[in-house]
Predict the structure of L-serine ammonia-lyase.
Amino acid sequence: MDRMPASIFNDVIGPVMRGPSSSHVAGAARIAAVVRQSVGGAPMRAVVDFDVNGSLAASHDGHGTDMGFVCGMLGKEITEPDVDRYARLAEEAGVEIEFRILDYGAEHPNNYRIEVWGRGGEHHLWEGVSVGGGMIEMRRYDGFDISLCGDFYEVLVKFPHGGAAAMKSSRAVADSAPDFAQALEGGGGSLLSLKYSKAPEPEALRVAAAEHGALDFVLIAPMLPTLSRANCAVPFSTAGEMLAYNEGRGLAMWELAAEYEAARGGTAKEDVLEKMRGLVSIMEGALKEGLAGTEYADRILGPQAYLIEAACKEGALIPCDILNNVIKSVTAIMETKSAMGVVVAAPTAGSCGCLPGTLLGAGLALGKSREEITRAMLAAGLVGIFIAEGATFAAEVGGCQVECGAGSGMAAAGLVQLMGGSAERCADAASMALQNITGLACDPVANRVEVPCLGKNVMGGSNAVASANMALAGYDKVIPLDETIAAMYDVGLKLPLELRCTFGGLGKSPTALRLLEKMKNR
């Protein structure tokens, strides 16, 4: 099965969540939700292994991996207000979860190796990856190579050798009309993997599986907002293809985004707009909460967003009304995130201030309507599609350039849309913004997603404003957006592990180490 096209609402704008990091919290929660379903509910025990050479070994506690995984195992949504009580909640539910750091040669820095025991005697081995921005891929199940991303209803049935192929050819499987069906052979038997875009009738499949000698039957429900399907086709997947598609049509960037996502999700363009309106409303709530002031004990920085407005009133700041409003708005949303408030990971939780704060801050200062801001967010989301297809949103893979940097490129395109610029100018602005941030390291201080993350989000907003104005004025971007994305990804892959969400850079400075010790002793 070929990889499904990226979706604005799966890969780019979202998930809605609490916590410091989408790849850690949301990714872990989704991985755990899959594992939980395989044992029919909250397990009796689970052991989770992180590779010593990956990013999770150093950051799983401070970045919220443990919290996300436990909540996923308990069936808790990561928007619930008590998710930070995860350890106590697991104890109360009688669920034992052990995290271990081992050297097992994982190929991805965000790799999870999981052994789980259910309350009814179920026992499974899983291996999965948090690929960035809350997206996941489960890659191994009880010794079989699979690909499960949460965008289908999945049926996994184990058989003795030959049983999976026989079941695949059965009338029961044909009648259930799977989008994809695959029979796999392994050392311990065979596995039938069925993928459905609509919920199947499991009982008929269970009966047929039993008749074919099934050893185990597991149904996994999807968890992504936009489901996938067979023959899923989109009008374009790169900026170059988008511009060619739009030649002679003159559609605005937001209209192209709506066409793309409607095709991807098999829905109407108005449905796409309505879904984005809902996400913008949540972003507005995060901004409002941050501006009101937040308190949370387990963080480095206290509330600071109010300082910008206070200093403006005193005439103490360099006069840049739009930019200062962006700085204030980005800061407010980041503070909501650090206080465990609800945010939209756009494109990630670590960069959740840059894009929403820039478009809301600039949009409100310019007197733009919510609908105009919603359209700008769609335009930004389309740039995110090109990044998702050509690179990654995981700082553990590509450094902060693919989180705050990506958010900056997306915000630049959104600002051009907000000002009525063409789709070509939106792409140019995104390219210039991304060109300005290649090589940006991810080096969080004290295992928290606050310092220098706040400053990098603010920088991303400032860079977006400058890049948007350059594009609107007609500056030559020289390097097309697709080539810039490819170059950014290439640079990210060449960054040392220490500069990809571990303890390098600022994270190993003497002050950072003192702060880390202080946070541990709180």
Residues 239-520 form a domain with the 2-methylcitrate dehydratase PrpD fold (CATH 1.10.4100). The CA atoms of residues 70 and 87 lie 8 Å apart.
